[in-house]
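Input sequence (418 aa), recorded before submission:
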Amino acid sequence: MKTIIRNARVMNEDKLSDLYIADGVISAPFSDTADMEIDVKGSALFPGLIDAHCHLREPGYEYKEDIESGTKSAAKGGFTSVCPMPNTSPVCDSPSVVQSIMKIASQKASCNVFPIGAASKGLKGQELSEIGLMKQAGIVAVSDDGLPIKTASQLRKVMEYASYFDIPVLNHCEDISLAEGAMNEGALATSMGLRGIPELAENIMISRDVLMAEYLNLPIHICHVSTRKGVDIIRDAKNRGVKVTAETCPHYFTLTENACEGYNTYAKMNPPLRTEDDRQAIIEGIADGTIDIIVTDHAPHHDDEKILEFSLALNGIVGFETAFSLGFTYLVKPGHITLIRLVEAMSKRPSEILNLGRGTLDVGAPADIACFDLEHQFAFDASKMFSKSKNTPYNGYELFGRCTLAIMGGKCTYEELC
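Predicted structure, token format:
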């Protein structure tokens, strides 16, 4: 199978050029007749996006999302690889569950699926999961997802054991003894009559994880950073040579706690949306590389779980179809970062951290690519999302950076131009 992508701005170069694909990999130009030619009409062409932190809900919660619908949504957002977290039912804590996910993905997925396995059995923070056997089955990292690895002793065991298999540990940094609220602790939470979650809950655990990584000289990856102090702790650690990497999500550089006003449960998430000062710090952290990557934390929920009292609503928003557009609109266009830095944070660096062997347009690399229209503004319409769930605070937002084409392994997975 040979494909030519015509009239693309590869990595947003000024001139238009063509990209060649043969047998699922990026190829040098060939003179043979192509099986398919796609004219992207000046769209910017990049390596396919990689989401290192998301939720596909299968097995167990298919009423919210499943591998088929979730990866279709991901492809529409320009993602060609996604890494689903293990909080499924049953929990992804054994080779059999990993194998089941991989089998379904091979049959139904519109992008590559690289599962993340549970660090502890049942996500209970007690007994270690079968990390080695899960790696053989296909996991690329371990995490207890929305639950922190509870104790320093358990974290040490997980990091040391995972290091034998050369896979990273991703940790949700939250001291749960301090995190019993529904939104960011502050005047707004008080005025709304809601119990708050202090930033201290996040900062304490980031500090613990950084110190553990420094002591063991082993890597740790900090999930969804949301506070200025957290960024400072990670920056200082990197300056000392600590093997720490970090991620954040678009909602932490586009929204603040003010989005919760009116008891808007579509703005309820964990970590909670913080202050404007925290939002600015997240942008600074992305700009200087303190925060390595941008992930979606795509967390679909049925409306019955979101449209109810704020304190009872589940945490999280969907994010596949808005992530790149939010990054381009709120980071690149105002001049906070370059477009190449955005693509690096959403493709190359996730691949490097998780050892996926993707995120490049080099000849011989997997033909995972995405094209975007960067010039034309569009109003985001939540009703047209491919995700089963519609829990997004961005409905109606005016954005730039609409995905026009996604190709995974040489196969067109998003059909707007196919």
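Checked by second reader. Residues 200-216 form the longest helix (17 residues).
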